[in-house]
Write a structure and sequence with these properties.
The structure is a single chain. 38% of the residues lie in helices and 19% in strands. The protein contains five helices and seven strands; from the N terminus they run βαβαββαβαββα. Strands 1, 2, 3, 4, 5, 6 and 7 form a seven-stranded mixed β-sheet that branches. It is globular, with a radius of gyration of 15 Å. Pfam families: FMN_red. InterPro entries: Flavoprotein-like_sf, FMN_Rdtase-like_dom, NAD(P)H-dep_reductase. This is NAD(P)H-dependent oxidoreductase.
């Protein structure tokens, strides 16, 4: 399969927090970089670009950012979502962004149907990291996505991500890389 053709295979990364270069955004970048190494085209919509009005099914108009998110998901062959864990749950920022996937309900490929979705949660403590990942999996299934076999629960009290694309814990880097590879590999297989 020539992934440089007119219809390249695309993997979209969604997540992070409002802080530029947040730990969850850095984790997302590691997974996306690993996906790109498999030959897919990647796109990132980080936390600061996820500042959207609360999702409202009754509202017909969408902001420019909301349209960009919806169109990016529509065109994605795979998705990677990384959320910070706040008080044992995913961030409102990421949850609201995922709510916008409802706008794809009438598409030929509705919601996240047929797409591999890689998931990771970054939280200051194991409890929030694990429960946030569980919630991301539940949301992915509700949106008809295929959660990758491996998900990442990362305790930011123990693992620190750096600006260079690494982390203080190689196991966390390996987990994130494998998540990105699984999403890319699934997307490439489905594109054949």
């Amino acid at each position: 399969m020539d992934v440089t053709s007119a219809n390249p295979v695309r993997v979209l990364g969604i997540g992070g927090s409002l802080r530029d270069g947040s730990q969850s955004e850095r984790a997302l970048r590691i997974a996306l970089d690993a996906a790109a190494e498999r030959g897919v085209q990647t796109e990132l919509i980080p936390g600061p670009e996820l500042v959207l009005p609360f999702y409202d099914t009754a509202a017909a108009e969408r902001t420019e950012r909301a349209v960009r998110l919806i169109e990016a998901v529509r065109g994605a062959d795979g998705v990677i979502v990384v959320s910070p864990g706040y008080h044992g749950a995913l961030s409102g920022l990421v949850k609201n962004a995922l709510d916008y996937v409802e706008d794809l309900r009438e598409d030929a490929r509705p919601y996240l149907d047929g797409r591999a979705v890689g998931l990771a949660a970054v939280a200051y403590g194991w409890q929030a990291a694990v429960t946030t990942l569980e919630q991301l999996r539940t949301i992915t299934h509700a949106l008809r996505g295929w959660a990758t076999p491996l998900g990442g629960s990362i305790n930011s009290a123990e693992t620190k991500f750096d600006e260079g694309g690494g982390a203080s814990d190689e196991k966390s880097v390996g987990t994130l890389r494998l998540i990105g590879q699984q999403v890319a590999d699934h997307a490439l297989l489905r594109s054949r």
